[in-house]
Amino acid sequence: MAKLKIEDLKKIKERVHAETALRDGERRAKITVHMGTCGIASGARDVMDALMKVIEEAGVIDVAITTSGCMGLCSREPLVTVELIGQEPIKYEYMDANKMRQVFKKHVLEGEIQTPFVLARGAEIVK
Fold it and tell me: Which of 37, 58, 61, 103 holds its CA 20 to 30 A away from the CA of 28?
């Protein structure tokens, strides 16, 4: 195994900080665009581009954007998960650039879940 460098440790620290910022109250929302091969083939890059642009246009700095791999629901791609502090995660299906802009403006900024696009509510925790 290669030795870790200071730069590697800084990257790990930044990643962990970003992942825990939502839980610690530094961010009000975390949006995950699922970008497995199936998601990308279905248009997840366009969804991500639209999300980045609408966040920039809104001047919002307290929303974390992340990516993940496939959720195993390839037929429902592109998928996006929105997590707001104190609320259950919402998974949106069949997303495109227009739907992403709507979800950001209505759900993230105004708190109104966009029910027509919802696949599931809650986390997939098995106890």
Answer: 37
What's the CATH code, domain 26-121?
3.40.30.10
Question: Given this model, what pLDDT does residue 105 score?
Answer: 96
Distance between CA atoms of residues 51 and 104, nearest Å: 7
Q: What is the pTM of this model?
A: 0.77
Distance CA 74, CA 22 (A): 27
User: Would you state the pLDDT for residue 13?
Assistant: 72
Per-residue b or e along 49-79, where b marks 16 or more CB atoms closer than 10 Å to that residue's CB:
ebbeebbeeeeeeebbebeeeebebeebbbb
